[in-house]
Amino acid sequence: MKYSLVELAPVAHNGSKREALHAAVRAAREADELGYERIWYAEHHHTVGYAAQDPVSLIALAARETERIRVGSGAVLLNHYSPFSIAERFLQLEALTPGRIDLGLGRATAGPLIDAALRRDRNSRPQDDFSHQVQEILAYYHHGFGPDHPFSPINLTAGMETVPDVWVLGSSGNSAALAGSLGLGYAFAGFINPGTAVAALDAHRESFQSTPFGTAQRNTMLALNIVAADDEDTAHRLTWPARLLWRRVAASGQAATTPTLAQAEAELPLDAKQQSSTFDGKTIPAQISGSPDTLKTQLEKLVEATGATEIMIQDMLIDPDLRSRSRALIAEAITRVDLSETADQPRL
């Protein structure tokens, strides 16, 4: 079972973005040693809560400081860029680190003000043409423009032996069928909308067809907020910072710095502390926790229920020791997951 990380570079209360970014790069070195398949960096604009605004710079730094792990974007928000610029920038990363670069593509708003600030042309109306943007990038990488297309003379891959692996990311399921029809891997942000994870991965499986743009086998990644500790009580307590963070965001409508475990313990209401963090085989909770033994069982049930081929870990831990121990224990749990009797059919 493959396991990966998505890194948002959360900023601690009274901490700096510099500290968060250095921690995000250290996370890549650590994940490389722990056997994680990949680490992806997010794109969040104009936020005090996360320091990962530009995946490309973090990818370059992390790739340089690691040996094996794949490094990529989770995700480039393609609605803010031209497909040509993204295709070219990730080809340069691929040239520097052949065979280790993932181009994860998504779309999201940063709010009307920041969306407008990010646009080069502020006079035309924005349009949702994500599907066409993704296909244009694939055409650059795989010489897919027809002879009459105005971009057919462009050859971005001259001198390149490999191209990045392209993934489509989503948090609603709307882009699952697009990824499947193009033969691309699909990553679903279950830490945002766990309740729709099964339907999204179903849509990808049902639409999947092998194409020259992706791998022959279907790749579906389920990204979840997962934390681990040596005992169950401690593991459950590690979900509290994420719960308090989301409550703060919901109350203010704005991103907030990430609370410490001590702050969460002091501020989080009792009912929020007691919310389940265990997957019961039916309902995927917003946060999942456990020891290696109980996480192994939960992850086996999750894979059986969703048909995911890879689990991506997201957490909101800022204490370096707690974070490192959690990610090491999660790696231990996933390497013990038994898929011998798991069918690729969801049962939720």
UniProtKB/TrEMBL annotation:
Q: Return the InterPro entries for the record.
A: Bact_Lucif_Oxidored, CmoO-like, Luciferase-like_dom, Luciferase-like_sf
Q: Which domain of life is it from?
A: Bacteria
Protein keywords:
Oxidoreductase
Give the matching Gene3D superfamilies. Answer: Luciferase-like domain (3.20.20.30)
Q: Which GO terms describe its molecular function?
A: oxidoreductase activity
CDD domains this protein is in?
Answer: Flavin_utilizing_monoxygenases
Quote the Pfam families the UniProt record gives: Bac_luciferase (PF00296)
* NCBIfam families recorded: oxido_grp_1 (TIGR03558)
Please give the family membership noted in the entry: To bacterial alkanal monooxygenase alpha and beta chains.
Name-wise, this protein is MsnO8 family LLM class oxidoreductase
